[in-house]
Write a structure and sequence with these properties.
The chain is mainly alpha-helical and about 350 residues long. It folds into three domains: about 45-150; about 170-240, no CATH class; about 255-350, Heat Shock Protein 90, CATH 3.30.565.10. It has nine helices and seven strands. It has helices spanning about 1-35, 45-105, 115-145, 160-220, 220-240, 260-275, 285-290, 295-315, 345-350; strands at about 150, 160, 255-260, 280-285, 290-295, 325-330, 330-335. The strands form three sheets. A three-stranded mixed beta sheet has the order 4-6-7. It is flat.
């Protein structure tokens, strides 16, 4: 919603500067030309002053109304604050009176020293407890008042504590969303690691049994076709299992050299059938092939998988040539395709 709002504001400003304002100026210019052509007298200064005076009146009305409401709110807060301080002081006085009344009723001469010390501690605790409670209340109110601030930034724009709090709330909300997403991804990654480990043992057992089945198929022609089908399908499944290996972080305790050629081979292994089905050409440039970096395959490979998968989705209905270009320069890798363009609103929102 925030991105949509920013995009709306930007488009509105563009309309204002590129359409509305030029249109007003054009109409004014046409009226002036028409007046001159027909020898009509137009007081241009009067027109200008009238236009400005209307805006001045609107600005003053809005400012006065807001100032009036602000003063009323300040008066209300001031009244509530004075009422609160009176109540707090009254509560303190009541506690003090109660303690003094209890002391006055006591016959100290008949009280043991130990009991007297205990009673004194009890009365002192009442006063201290009441004082601390009232102090916390007033301190909290005072801190809230101190947090009512307004400053001017470099452009002269006034920034209030409300603006700062809203910005902090938005940042906190964004950080919470990222933390939740990171947690989900971490759990998913751990689950994949466990599945890969368990599945590897199962695959090893299946591979051994297929080898045993081959011995029977060699002497039994009826089993030969069945053996070939099982082996072909299993090799296809085993190939997909192998693709999980670079995504397992535990296999790479240290950063390794990742090459463009290695990334291209990994993408071919995953998307070969889909690329052929939709007649899409995955083309790496020479710079991409030569590009290298240090990192974890489990960090970088999924990025390429996700982006290429998205490109294939948008290209599968495109008529004509379909290409996904893998490129690189001194700043890093890049992926592009000749499919539909990203909507202008989304692109500007992303790039900002």
């Amino acid at each position: 919603m925030e991105n949509d709002w920013d995009a709306y504001r930007e488009e509105y400003e563009k309309l204002e500067s590129n359409l509305f304002e030029p249109t007003v100026n054009k109409i004014s210019e046409m009226l002036d030309n028409y007046a001159m052509k027909n020898e009509l007298e137009i007081n241009r200064r009067l027109r200008l002053e009238q236009s400005i005076n209307i805006l001045i009146k609107e600005a003053r009305t809005k400012t006065n109304l807001e100032a009036k409401e602000t003063r009323a709110k300040l008066k209300e807060v001031q009244g509530n604050l004075l009422k609160l301080t009176r109540e707090v002081m009254a509560d303190t006085d009541d506690t003090v009176k109660d303690v003094l009344s209890e002391i006055a009723r006591m016959d100290i001469s008949e009280i043991e020293d130990t009991e007297l010390v205990s009673k004194r501690s009890e009365l002192e605790a009442q006063i201290i407890s009441e004082a601390e409670r009232n102090e916390e209340v007033l301190e909290s109110i005072r801190l809230q008042l101190e947090n009512i601030i307004w400053i001017k930034d470099k452009t002269g724009e006034i920034i209030t504590s409300t603006d700062i709090n809203e910005a902090l709330e938005e940042e906190l909300f964004d950080l919470k969303e990222r933390a939740n997403l990171d947690l989900e991804l971490s759990q998913l990654g751990m689950a994949i690691g466990v599945i890969h480990h368990e599945f590897s043992g199962t695959v090893k057992s299946i591979r051994q049994n297929i080898s045993r089945l081959k011995a029977w198929a060699d002497v039994n022609e009826d089993l030969l076709e069945l053996y070939r089908n099982i082996r072909t399908n299993f090799e296809h499944l085993d190939g997909y299992l192998t693709l999980f290996t670079p995504l397992n972080r535990r296999l790479y305790r240290n950063e390794v050299e990742i090459t463009g050629n290695g990334i291209k081979k990994f993408l071919d292994d995953i998307f070969k059938m889909r690329l052929e089905r939709y007649n899409i050409n995955l083309k790496p440039t020479l710079n991409f092939k030569k590009k290298t970096l240090l990192g974890y395959p489990s960090t970088f490979y999924p990025v390429f998988v996700n982006v290429v998968d998205n490109a294939i989705f948008w290209l599968n209905d495109k008529p004509g040539d379909r290409e996904i270009i893998l490129d690189a320069d001194e700043n890093g890798f890049s992926i592009s395709d000749n499919g539909p363009k990203i909507p202008k609103k989304d692109w500007e929102s992303f790039s900002s």
